[in-house]
From TrEMBL:
This is Beta-Ig-H3/fasciclin. Residues 1-26 form the signal peptide. Residues 26-155 form the FAS1 domain. It comes from Nitzschia inconspicua. The lineage of its organism: Eukaryota, Sar, Stramenopiles, Ochrophyta, Bacillariophyta. Keywords: Signal. The keyword Signal applies. GO terms for cellular component: extracellular space.
């Protein structure tokens, strides 16, 4: 009896040890996006870009700016092809590091995964903005392989798409 108790309690200790040595955040960037009710349009678009989805699952040290359903609704009148949507998604993905809100300063530029085109940041008393119009509405959503910042207002658009829309 005593023997079993000892075995049982050392098993218990080993289990606790294993659980506490798991990474602090179990969900990948992709999982966090997929489970967020404000990001269902983004999730639907990601389903059409498997290459990007894989990177959000398995790349490490990444940052993604995630347009909310409201942000996409605000550009719903803009006619975008599937290819343009894929470009816009890649433009919101920064593969070169995990940038927390505290790492983002006024004037910072980060290279996106869309042809390395830069995202420009403004930080002032109103908040944090991408390319002057897309405001960070929920920063620092942590995942096992990176960080997500939700953006409202509107998705950030790469130059090629802005040029096509103004034509
Ligand atoms: C943001 O707005 C400022 C002031 O109007 C302007 O000088 C700057 O070029 C804009 N930046 C971007 C990325 O649009
Ligand atoms: C902060 O920057 C954003 C984006 O450029 C701009 O729209 C907003 O008016 C600025 N707020 C202040 C208080 O300057």
């Amino acid at each position: 009896m005593r023997f079993f108790n000892t075995v049982a309690s050392s098993f218990f200790v080993a289990t606790i040890f294993l659980v506490s040595s798991l990474p602090a955040y179990a969900q990948s960037v992709f999982d966090v996006i997929s489970n967020d009710p404000q990001l269902t349009i983004l999730r639907t678009y990601l389903a059409t870009t498997p290459g990007l989805t894989n990177r959000l699952r398995s790349s490490t040290d990444i940052t993604i700016f995630a347009p909310t359903n409201q942000a996409f609704a605000n550009v719903a009148n803009v006619d975008l092809s599937r290819g343009q949507i894929a470009q816009i998604l890649r433009y919101h993905f920064v593969p070169s590091g995990e940038f927390l809100a505290s790492d983002i300063s006024d004037g910072l530029q980060l290279r996106s995964a869309f042809q390395s085109e830069r995202l420009n940041f403004q930080v002032n008393s109103t908040g944090v903005f991408v390319n002057n119009f897309s405001q960070v509405v929920q920063p620092n959503m942590m995942a096992s392989n990176g960080v997500i910042h939700k953006i409202g207002n509107t998705p950030a658009l790469p130059r090629t798409i802005l040029a096509a829309l103004n034509r």
